[in-house]
């Protein structure tokens, strides 16, 4: 969630969704942001493996308390190294290597270890002496799994890691330390909940803004690790199960009801807009963008003509459900998210529409759009959480504000 924005282009017409990727401040710090903003809108993911997932990676679920993170899917060899020794085992548990360094190469439906064919099963790398494993130089807690894809020379690399060890590598990528301990604790609970929700649906999580940004050990910081530790076991639930705990960078003063943004919104949870007086300090709280009329019409795929009016239909939080663009040659209605993404695609961040909370107007040959916030606006406003914490709010109070309909409970 990263925030982020992560979020997207050609839209799926079945859903008008801003998408998960808007989660997270990770977007602020990475180029992924801009890319994410232009990703396609995704329908809710089914509880079945996505294409390209090796069957063994799905059938062989990790043990309780361990989360499976998809680090990469690649056609080039994967290098696993360690400062100590690790063991490589095949799908039957047989040791196929004991080393400090190995190169696994994908073949069509098989894996090769230093040139030796290991067959079609998943290979597991497990540290022997506590020294963490590195994949292509990036260090991770837990174990690594490498699974070939059927028929093509490609492999998936996954990291099986204890839930809270995973969060140690997520939190600093999704919220900076300067937001303060209580905001970080709220983020830890949200991130833990979000991960559990995704695992319950898909069985694993992505390591980027499609889920939450995960940087492994290199990402960890002392303060965010403390936030994870001090919230151990805490999750947001409704009817006894983890909710989809969306979060975003900046709401701009009012959050958005989940059902306005996401097709998989849960009934009774995040179902109303929440006032947020605490994100005023965000650099994304309010912004203005200007588009020459010809560029504006071109971006929306409309013919060149003098514009006569722009009319918004808004949701209960004031965000655009649609924009009616009228010119001398006719009218067109554009879905709010399409309007945002089309006018953002290929542009630098400072020229993008950062949310659908917009007020457009025509001003002598130019379309001027005033906007508020960054992201989909659903769930926790991260800048708002930081501002609320700075006024003395606890992480409990932060979560109660931004997740109406959910309660903080403890994992058994
Ligand atoms: Zn806010």
| Average pLDDT level | 87
Count of extended strands: 22
Low-pLDDT windows of residues: 1-58
Query: How far from one another are the termini?
Result: 26 Å
| Coarse structural class | alpha+beta
Radius of gyration: 23 Å
Strand content: 25-35%
Largest sheet report = 11 strands, mixed
Binned, the helix content reads 10-25%
Bound molecules: zinc ion
Molecular structure report:
- The structure is a single chain.
- With 412 residues, this protein is of the alpha+beta class.
- Strands 1, 2, 3, 4, 5, 6, 7, 8, 9, 10 and 11 form an eleven-stranded mixed β-sheet that branches. A three-stranded antiparallel β-sheet has the order 13-12-22.
- Among the domains are: 76-153, no CATH class; 286-372, no CATH class.
- Helices cover 23% and strands 31% of the residues.
- The structure holds zinc ion.
- Residues 250-251, 276, 279, 381, 383-384 line the site of zinc ion.
Name its key features.
single chain; 412 residues; alpha+beta; three-stranded antiparallel β-sheet; disordered N terminus; binds zinc ion
What is the topology?
Elements lengths: L25 H4 L2 H6 L17 H5 L6 E9 L3 E12 L5 E13 L2 E4 L2 E4 L3 E5 L5 E3 L2 E3 L2 E6 L6 E8 H12 L6 H22 L2 E2 L15 H9 L3 E5 L2 E2 L4 E2 L9 H4 L24 E7 H7 L7 E8 L5 E8 L2 E6 H7 L15 E6 L2 E7 L7 E2 H9 L4 H8 L4 E4 L2
Parallel strand pairs: 1-11, 14-21
Antiparallel strand pairs: 1-10, 2-3, 2-6, 2-7, 3-4, 4-5, 6-9, 7-8, 9-10, 12-13, 12-22, 15-20, 16-17, 17-18, 19-20
Helix pairs in contact: 4-5, 4-6, 5-6, 5-10, 5-11
The structure holds zinc ion.
């Amino acid at each position: 969630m990263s925030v982020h924005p992560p979020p997207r282009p050609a839209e799926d017409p079945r859903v008008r969704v801003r998408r998960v990727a808007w989660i997270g401040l990770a977007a602020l710090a990475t180029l992924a942001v801009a890319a994410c903003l232009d990703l396609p809108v995704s329908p809710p993911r089914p509880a079945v493996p996505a294409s390209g997932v090796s069957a063994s990676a799905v059938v062989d679920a990790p043990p309780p308390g361990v989360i499976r993170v998809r680090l990469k899917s690649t056609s080039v060899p994967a290098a696993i190294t360690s400062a100590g020794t690790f063991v490589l085992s095949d799908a039957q548990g047989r040791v196929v290597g004991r080393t400090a360094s190995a190169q696994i190469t994908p073949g069509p439906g098989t894996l090769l270890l230093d040139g030796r064919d290991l067959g079609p099963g998943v290979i597991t790398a497990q540290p022997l002496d506590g020294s963490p494993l590195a994949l292509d130089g990036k260090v991770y807690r837990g174990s690594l799994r490498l699974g070939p894809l059927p028929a093509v020379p490609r492999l998936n690399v996954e990291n099986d890691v204890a839930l809270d060890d995973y969060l140690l590598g997520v939190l600093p990528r999704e919220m900076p330390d300067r937001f303060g301990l209580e905001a970080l604790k709220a983020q830890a609970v949200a991130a833990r909940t979000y991960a559990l929700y995704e695992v319950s649906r898909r069985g694993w999580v992505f390591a980027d803004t499609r889920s939450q940004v995960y940087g492994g050990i290199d990402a960890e910081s002392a303060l965010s690790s403390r936030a994870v530790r001090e919230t151990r076991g805490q999750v947001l639930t409704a009817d006894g199960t983890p909710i989809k705990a969306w979060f975003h960078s900046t709401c701009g003063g009012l959050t958005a009801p989940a059902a306005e943004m996401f097709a998989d919104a849960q009934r009774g949870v995040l179902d109303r807009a929440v006032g947020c007086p605490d994100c005023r300090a965000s650099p994304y709280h309010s912004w203005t963008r200007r588009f020459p009329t010809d560029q504006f019409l071109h971006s929306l795929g409309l013919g060149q003509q003098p514009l006569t009016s722009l009319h918004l239909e808004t949701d209960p939080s004031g965000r655009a459900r649609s924009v009616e663009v009228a010119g001398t040659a006719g009218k067109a209605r554009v879905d709010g998210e399409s309007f945002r993404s089309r006018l953002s695609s290929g542009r630098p961040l400072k020229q993008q529409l950062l949310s659908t909370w917009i007020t457009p107007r025509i001003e002598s040959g130019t379309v001027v759009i005033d906007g508020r916030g960054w992201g989909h606006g659903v769930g926790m406003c991260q800048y708002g959480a930081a501002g609320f914490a700075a006024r003395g709010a606890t992480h409990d109070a932060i979560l109660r504000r931004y997740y109406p309909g959910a309660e903080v409970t403890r994992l058994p």
